[in-house]
Specification:
alpha+beta, N-terminal domain of MutM-like DNA repair proteins, four-stranded antiparallel beta sheet, 2 domains, Helicase, Ruva Protein, domain 3
Length: 295
């Protein structure tokens, strides 16, 4: 499952192998837009969250959106691919390397001058993988999210707010900050927003240069909650749970024992008042099974 750090590493490797070299061959069976012409020089390879772009010297830009399934591989010329040709979505060949994109749901080209017309790139938020990103601007985007009732666990995957945060980092950032994934984004304070953004940026940048993702030091596999459904939380000992959330039904992992900050259910229960002060009503409430067990 690619995230911002994985795509950043792919872009770095491809930049070293392709930049400054003329294109010998380009193939993209499902490409939307014009194809790069043979002989054109590859100028840049960049990552933008879950997007990886390749730009040629005539201003043509290839944009591949990885989403949950896409990935780029780099092979020596003539090397055997690790995946079948049927999964290829784009292939760029230079004199000594072949870069191959597999299973990317979106493969499009556009002209640099028309970048704002591109439906995905025109709306992307700041990229947390980049050291010069203005984190304050990301905080403002979080605090001014158009739908204040949206759940924080869903907003963190919105690439219009911040690029690079995928499902793994979504779960780990929320655990690290002890925020409930069900918190309404409109209820978070500026302090909460700063913690979320700084934590996400720190995690992503710490994993830019090595393939094994480690975001929780000392934890098995380097992860505190992601993929640990049914195991005990290292912080509070409660059982980690998982549930599908959001438009794309992504699996959320979280600890209900310690990720309680701004949890709407807890806030409602704290506002509850006795249903009826009459002694008979109080006795009836005390006899309920859950109240008997608590006494």
């Amino acid at each position: 499952m690619p995230e911002g750090d994985t795509i950043h590493r792919s872009a770095s490797a491809m930049r070293t192998a392709l930049a400054g070299k003329p294109t010998l061959r380009f193939d993209a069976p499902r490409l939307v837009g014009p194809s790069p012409r043979a002989g054109r020089i590859i100028e840049t390879v960049e990552s933008h969250g879950k997007h990886l772009t390749v730009e040629w010297d005539d201003g043509l830009v290839l944009d591949t959106h990885m989403r949950m399934s896409g990935s780029w591989h780099l092979y020596r010329a003539g090397g055997r691919w690790r995946r079948p040709y049927t999964q290829m979505r784009a292939a760029i060949e230079v004199s000594d390397w072949v870069a191959v994109c597999f299973n990317a749901p979106s493969v499009e080209t556009y002209r640099r001058a028309d970048k704002r017309r591109h439906p995905g790139m025109g709306r992307l938020g700041p990229d947390l993988c980049k050291a010069d990103t203005d984190l304050g601007a990301v905080v403002n985007l979080l605090l001014t999210y158009p739908d204040p009732t949206a759940r924080l666990g869903e907003v963190l995957l919105d690439q219009r707010v911040m690029c690079g945060v995928g499902n793994v980092y979504r779960c780990e950032v929320l655990w690290s900050t002890e925020l409930s994934p069900y918190a309404k984004v409109g209820t978070i304070s500026e302090h909460d927003a700063i913690r979320v953004v700084n934590t996400a940026a720190t995690m992503l940048r710490a994993n830019l240069h090595h393939a094994k993702r480690v975001v929780a030091a000392g934890q098995k596999g380097g992860l505190a909650v992601y993929g640990r459904n049914g195991q005990r939380c290292a912080r509070c000992g409660e059982t980690v749970e998982c549930r599908r959330m959001g438009e794309y039904n992504r699996v959320l992992y979280w600890c209900p024992g310690c990720q309680t900050h701004l949890d709407p259910k807890l806030e409602r229960s704290s506002d509850d008042t006795p249903m009826d002060p009459h002694p008979a009503a109080q006795r009836w409430l005390a006899d309920l099974p859950w109240n008997r067990d608590a006494s």
